[in-house]
Design the sequence.
């Protein structure tokens, strides 16, 4: 073989090796060219204008660059925690919230009692001394006169009973301005009066309104209504939470210038087993003066012989009351402890009370066994 033939063989070997390398680098997709895709170069077509093939040209080709290029370092991976035990943090308990402080409730008003416990009506007198003029005053009222309850059940007086009735009222009760005969000594009002009020029968016609909501007492003497307007002889308004007296010389709905309600015998108290206040009583003749706690007088007799308004008497401790009925015993016990106040001109030794269907009239009538001689006058100068 001549030199020219040997050169041709070398060239063919080089071409064959280059083709094999190209086929291996192109992958299966590049070996899939066909006549239907004229844009796909045929690897066996020999050298092309784009890439020289030969011993000196192969290192500069793009394929050789990719094959011979050093590997590009990849991104540094973060260390993995796989295989390492990591303790699960314990859940932290939520702090216990402090309870929201509740606002202090609005204080309730004190219960509405009939005057404070230290009021003169509510003071016991069983340990006070006997007045120096006790015998004189008791004799003027009547030593042999009987004690008489001026109140009853509703079996009398056309179903109204006898006594001084009480009207319980509240802030919704309609009020009226009352025209008084003695307006200069009367509280102007207005006075709460129910649409059909209970009024004492007889000449005194007392109208009592007890407001247990506002703790006030409204009393009218000689109450009447005409043409939608109310009239009265005199009237007084009392704050039941106060010990204040009326101005000295002023009347009230009572001749002595005292409130009426606190001196009434009331069935709920008797049924409860105790009366904790003095009672109200009348005498036919009184003197032209008054003593504490009275503020007014209505008599014309001499005070040397006749009692003044405000006189306080009590049942003697020596009087045996064990034989009386249950209602009478409660009343007599109160007369020993709290006594009774002279508050108006009227029948001798008549004690006042409110009518109630539950009164036992037979029991009450036994009070007539108590005589004037069973009482004594109390020196109340220590109560001021």
Sequence:
């Amino acid at each position: 073989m001549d030199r020219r033939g040997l050169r041709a063989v070398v060239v063919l070997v080089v071409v064959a090796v280059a083709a094999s390398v190209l086929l291996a680098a192109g992958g299966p997709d590049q070996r899939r060219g066909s006549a239907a895709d004229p844009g796909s170069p045929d690897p066996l077509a020999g050298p092309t204008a784009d890439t020289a093939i030969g011993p000196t040209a192969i290192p500069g080709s793009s394929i050789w660059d990719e094959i011979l290029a050093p590997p590009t370092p990849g991104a540094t991976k973060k260390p993995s925690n796989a295989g390492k035990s990591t303790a699960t943090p314990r859940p932290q308990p939520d702090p216990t919230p402090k309870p929201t402080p509740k606002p202090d409730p609005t204080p309730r008003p004190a219960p509405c009692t009939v005057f404070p416990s230290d009021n003169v009506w509510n003071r016991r007198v069983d340990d006070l001394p006997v007045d120096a003029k006790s015998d004189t005053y008791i004799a003027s009222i009547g030593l042999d006169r009987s004690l008489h309850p001026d109140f009853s059940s509703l079996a009398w007086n056309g179903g109204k009973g006898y006594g001084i009735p009480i009207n319980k009222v509240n802030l919704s009760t309609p009020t009226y301005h009352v025209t008084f005969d003695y307006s200069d000594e009367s509280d102007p009002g207005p006075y709460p009066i129910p649409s059909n009020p209970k009024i004492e029968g007889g000449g005194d016609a007392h109208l009592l309104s007890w407001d247990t909501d506002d703790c006030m007492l409204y009393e009218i003497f000689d109450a009447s209504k005409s043409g939608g307007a109310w009239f009265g002889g005199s009237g007084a308004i009392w704050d039941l939470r106060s010990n204040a007296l009326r101005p000295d010389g002023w009347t009230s709905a009572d001749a002595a210038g005292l409130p009426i309600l606190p001196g009434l015998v009331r069935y709920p108290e008797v049924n409860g087993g105790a009366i904790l206040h003095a009672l109200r009583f009348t005498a036919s003749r009184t003197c032209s003066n008054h003593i504490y706690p009275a503020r007014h007088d209505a008599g014309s007799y001499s005070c040397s012989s006749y009692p003044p308004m405000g006189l306080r008497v009590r049942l003697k401790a020596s009087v045996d009351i064990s034989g009386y009925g249950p209602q009478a015993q409660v009343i007599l016990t109160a007369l020993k402890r709290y006594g009774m106040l002279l508050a108006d001109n009227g029948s001798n030794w008549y004690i006042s009370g409110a009518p109630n269907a539950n009164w036992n009239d037979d029991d009450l009538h036994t009070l007539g066994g108590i005589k004037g001689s069973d009482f004594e006058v109390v020196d109340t100068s220590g109560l001021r």
